[in-house]
Amino acid sequence: MSIVQVDLGRRSYPIHIGEQLLGRPELVAPHLAGRQVLVITDDQVAPLYLKQALATFSDYETEQLILPAGEAQKTLENLNRIFDRLLARRFGRDATLVALGGGVIGDMVGFAAACYQRGVGFIQMPTTLLAQVDSSVGGKTAVNHPLGKNMIGAFHQPRCVIADTKTLQSLDTRQLRAGCAEVIKYGLISDVDFFVWLEAHLEAVLGLEPQATAEAVRRSCENKAAVVSADEHERGQRALLNLGHTFGHAIETGLGYGRWLHGEAVAAGMVMAAQMSARIGMLPDREAARVQELLERAKLPTKLPPELNVESMLGHMSVDKKVLGGKLRLVLLKAIGRAVLSEDFDPEILRNTLEAG
Amino acid sequence: MSIVQVDLGRRSYPIHIGEQLLGRPELVAPHLAGRQVLVITDDQVAPLYLKQALATFSDYETEQLILPAGEAQKTLENLNRIFDRLLARRFGRDATLVALGGGVIGDMVGFAAACYQRGVGFIQMPTTLLAQVDSSVGGKTAVNHPLGKNMIGAFHQPRCVIADTKTLQSLDTRQLRAGCAEVIKYGLISDVDFFVWLEAHLEAVLGLEPQATAEAVRRSCENKAAVVSADEHERGQRALLNLGHTFGHAIETGLGYGRWLHGEAVAAGMVMAAQMSARIGMLPDREAARVQELLERAKLPTKLPPELNVESMLGHMSVDKKVLGGKLRLVLLKAIGRAVLSEDFDPEILRNTLEAG
Q: How close A176 gets to chain B, by Cα (Å)?
């Protein structure tokens, strides 16, 4: 087991990474304020891991809540189901919520914890690669709105993260590949060595070889923790983590949530960002090609879905939450391992990139 | 005009108090991050003050949203109507929400601002005495849940508060008296001089004599600001602001919300707290009588409503205890101007107090 620490002063917390960490009470005990624990998961994860997760809290007053799975379920309505249960069972301010599942469960449970009685503790138990390397770390929580993803949320850090890499074995290949998009993202943003390592070990990671998997999760978490520690509330550098996401969110919104997985949309978005960077002359064409090649090896989409035309992409991108005062801000690449925020690009280059994509 | 500063480091903000402050752009201009402003109010306040409030932001891109009035409207559903509007109009992260109205609008708009895109700025323009002296200051925001008041919310400080005392002239007498209960509360908790001042000037405040009103609002805000600055997230001393509220909530719940105004229930609750303190021997009888006398002069209730017997009060107070977790904790008085938190009191004394009340 390895531990990555997220340094945030009083809100610091550990990410435990390794095999068979569910069911180990000693990892969570220091992070529970009171005796009441509500474990929330979805109907796909529950049959696989709920029993193990509950065993982690066998010394506590434990409740469980199983929500329907899927991005389309990340709604205010399901959030309210969590509140209903907490209040029906009279959970107090020292209660702890536990998010067992992927990014959807993690984001929604985290937001419920942020709001319930103006804030209670929560623990992330991510069971997908995407959640282990990205969404469970850093305290971004949210639900979707019909007009935009993650539009309603809060910054609320977990008390700890338990990333049991054994749970990745139940992921279907498509989910695993989608998670890999976010792993590759960290190499692109700030860690060229990791990108090179991934070029050498991609198949080992996708094959879930234990050491390669743990290494990929650990280095992803280290990269994310460093960014989050420096800029918790995304006033600056944290926005770099959105590489590929403005394009990606537009794809997800345009297709309707759930058609493409988040990581798939981000993969195509990162290729768009790399190609746009190359068009601007900021990134050598060869490097943009390397980005595309690695994502193709992971069998991730690297082009826009044919259903979406340029106009609908531009429309969805303009409502994205990274629009500041009407200006669209994109994360572009100066090199592999060096992402930058850009506001003043020629809109024609964006249009040309989308047309070519 | 006077200014009370709430000191919270980077989240510090001014409360402007005085007549005819609505419509003065220079007071809000330093606190607006971007150009988009959504002014939210209710259908009772809109005909009276919306035009003036909008004039304050005449140099900005202003939208308005009018919600139905009343505590029963402080729901997730109405919160979502705010999000609908923000997203339909593509409001960005630098947008500002403005809460024009009483505590219901302030709490709901503040919570919307806390959650929209994980936090945007907001400005409080309180138009009731209760909101000017209490709910608009300190950053507690929330909506209600059918199983409990203010159960879903956040701590989110406004960028500034504009307390235009002229707006109090449209309050009906009952609302004004109810707001006065919270004014008297500050004297009881931490400011004996203010209590003595109120004994001398109560009728001037209730008569809305401009100087007396401004003074009452200013000193209330100063007291609240001091408590909030010391304990923003209610980890300790801020709980003193709940003087009279545990009794009061039990009255409100027992009668059904809306029968008594919040301030009315708090008034009777403060008398209970004073009488219980006297029974314990913590507060001289003469001081408890002074508390009751001042509230009687304000024509506020000082006894339990006859519909509620001791058992139902104890039931609602203990339900409250379970909902909030832990032990029943009451705010009692060691002196006028010196409130204390107490958990270890003899339950018989609580019962005797309720029987006598």
A: 28
Token pair belonging to B123: 């400005």
How close is the nearest chain B Cα to the Cα of A169, in Å?
33
Assigned token pair, A140: 């971004």
Which tokens belong to B272? 């209970």
Torsion angle defined by CA atoms of residues A154, A155, A156 and A161, in that order, rounded to the nearest 10 degrees: 120
Q: Where are the domains of chain B?
A: 2-169, 173-356
Angle formed by the axes of helices A173-190 and A210-230, nearest 10°: 50
* Nearest CB to A152; choose among B115, B145, B152: B115
- What is the 8-class DSSP label of residue B233? T
- Judge contact between B124 and B106, C-beta under 8 A: yes
What token pair was written down for A288? 């943009």
The CATH architecture to which A2-170 belongs is: 3-Layer(aba) Sandwich (3.40)
Residue with tokens 């005062």: A325
Report how far residue B144's alpha carbon sits from residue B151's, in angstroms, rounded to the nearest whole number. Answer: 6
Q: Looking at the predicted structure, is the pLDDT value of residue A148 above 90?
A: no
Does B234 score more than 60 pLDDT?
A: yes
- What integer pLDDT is reported at residue B322 of this predicted model? 46
State the architecture of B2-169 in CATH terms. Answer: 3-Layer(aba) Sandwich (3.40)
Say if residue B346's pLDDT is above 50.
Answer: yes
Give residue A319's pLDDT: 67
CA A145 from centroid of its chain's CA atoms: 18
- Within chain A, where are the H helices? 25-28, 46-56, 76-88, 103-115, 129-130, 173-190, 192-206, 210-230, 245-255, 262-280, 285-297, 310-319, 347-356
The residue annotated as part of the active site, out of B149, B185, B218, B245, is: B245
**Domain B173-356 belongs in CATH node 3.30.360.10:** no
Query: pLDDT for A223-259, tens place per residue?
Result: 999 999 999 998 889 999 999 999 998 999 899 877 8
CA distance A49 to A45: 6
Query: Interior CA angle at A76 toward A72 and A79, to 5°?
Result: 95
On chain A, the residues whose CB falls within 8 A of the CB of B322 are 90, 92
Give residue A357's pLDDT. Answer: 82
Please name the member of A36, A119, A148 whose beta carbon is closest to the beta carbon of B87.
A148
Rounded Cα distance, B280 and B296, in Å: 23
> Is B81 a catalytic site residue?
no
User: Where does B33-132 have alpha helices with state H?
Assistant: 46-56, 76-88, 103-115, 129-130
Q: What is the mean pLDDT of residues B5-34?
A: 96
Q: State ipTM.
A: 0.93
**β-pairing, A36-42 with A96-101?**
parallel
Q: How far is B123 from B225, CA to CA, in rounded Å?
A: 16
Measured between beta carbons, which residues in chain B are less than 8 angstroms from residue A92?
322-326
Using DSSP, state whether A3 is helix, strand or coil. strand
Active site residue B19: no
Cα-to-chain-centroid distance, residue A323 = 20
Q: Is B152 on the interface with A (CB under 8 A)?
A: yes
pLDDT for the residue B339: 97
Chain B residue nearest residue A315, CA to CA:
B90
**Average pLDDT over every residue of A71-97:** 95
Contact A115 B152 (CB under 8 A): yes
